[in-house]
Amino acid sequence: MKSICRTSLCAGLGLVLAGFAAVSPATAQEAGAAASGRTEVTLAGGTPILVELNNGVDSKKAKVGDPIVAHTTAALKSTDDRTILPKGAKVEGHITQADAKSKGGTESALGIQFDKAIMKDGEEIPLSVVIQAVGAPANFSGAGDTSSLPSPSNTGTTQTSPMSTQHMPPPTAQEAGGAPPDAGTGAASSPRLDAKSRGAIGLRGITLNDEPANSRPATVVVSNGKSVRLDGGTQLLLVVQAQTPAQ
User: How far is CA 245 from the centre of its chain?
Assistant: First the structure.
């Protein structure tokens, strides 16, 4: 009788311990998330992000998968004036296509896909963006430093409900680069891009094509020169793409 009771007691104790083992990891994870006080940040479709390349890249030398790094040049704020991305935040991506102009060819191409923004404390914000405008390194002597990006009506996070995305008109000849294309990129100093910039500014013979890669938004920079060469400091206007609801 005593043996049976002890066996039953051990079995019951075993079930209790097994229950704690199954619950503990989830409970610890939830407790850790609650203690951190962080919530996932999702940028609304149409949100503009101004960045500059940290280093130059050339489609003649680059390879698919090579990392590409930029940094924000203006703080991105929500409609209630909270800072979502501070100025100087790191933005990481990779090369999706790298082609120099072949013999008898007409163009070269460089595909870029940005993956995430990294805050100074290590927090990461996933990005789903295309390049709406590209500009030569800014002429600092002739353009003021933009310390923050004005909050458009369609900027939002999971804590801020975004408004509907506004559709911009096609770029004018001046917005698309001004001068007619030539054999090279023709990089020169350029005014700073803003949220309304479109096309190639201060870069001759450059066009931008939205071409998704791995089912995510990406952009291919096309040049009529021998290769696509973007110097360090090249300005980019990234625009967040609206998330497609899962089927």
Answer: 19
In the block, tokens 């007619």 appear at 180
Please state the domain extents for the chain: 1-37, 48-165+172-240
* Residues with Cβ within 8 Å of residue 150, at least 6 apart in sequence: 195
- The pTM for the full model equals 0.68
pLDDT tens-digit readout, 119-155: 988 999 999 999 999 999 986 433 334 455 544 444 4
Distance CA 55, CA 23 (A): 48
